[in-house]
Design a protein that fits this description.
This protein is 39% helix and 27% strand. The chain has two domains: 31 residues; 56 residues. It is built from two helices and three strands; from the N terminus they run αβββα. By secondary structure, it is α+β, with helices and mostly antiparallel strands. A hairpin with a 4-residue loop joins β1 and β2. A three-stranded antiparallel β-sheet has the order 1-2-3, with helices on one face. The radius of gyration is 24 Å and the shape is elongated. This is Os02g0587700 protein. Keywords: Signal. It comes from Oryza sativa subsp. japonica. GO terms for molecular function: nucleic acid binding; RNA-DNA hybrid ribonuclease activity.
Length: 102
C-alpha cells in the first residue's frame, strides 16, 4: 500500500511541476518581439545560403537562393558533396556556391 501511495505522490508532483512550468512559460510574453529580416535597397540582391553536414558519412549539402528587394525568387542552387571534414567546411562551400550563383 505504501508503494502505491508513493507512486501517486510522485505522479502528483510531476503534474504540479508540468503545470508550474507551463504557467511560467506563458508569462514570458513581455519579451521583445523579433524584428525579422530587413529588405535590401532596390538595387541590391540578397543571397541566402545554407549547409547541412553529416558527421557519420562526411557528406554535406549546400543551398543558395537569390532574391530581389521585394523578396522575389531570382535563382537558386543546391549541391551534394562527399569527403567533407567538418561543418565549418560545409558552410564555406555554401558561401562559395552562393557567390558563384550571384
Amino acid at each position: 500500500m505504501v508503494k502505491g501511495f508513493r507512486w501517486l505522490l510522485d505522479q502528483l508532483y510531476l503534474l504540479y511541476a508540468l503545470t508550474l512550468n507551463y504557467k511560467m512559460a506563458k508569462k514570458k510574453s513581455d519579451a521583445k518581439p523579433r524584428e525579422g529580416l530587413h529588405k535590401p535597397p532596390e538595387v541590391i540582391l540578397k543571397v541566402n545560403i545554407g549547409a547541412s553536414f553529416d558527421i557519420v558519412s562526411s557528406t554535406e549539402g549546400t543551398g543558395a537562393v537569390i532574391r530581389d528587394s521585394q523578396g522575389t525568387f531570382l535563382a537558386g542552387s543546391c549541391r551534394y558533396l562527399s569527403h567533407i571534414a567538418d561543418a565549418a567546411m560545409a558552410e564555406a562551400y555554401a558561401l562559395r556556391d552562393g557567390l558563384i550563383l550571384a
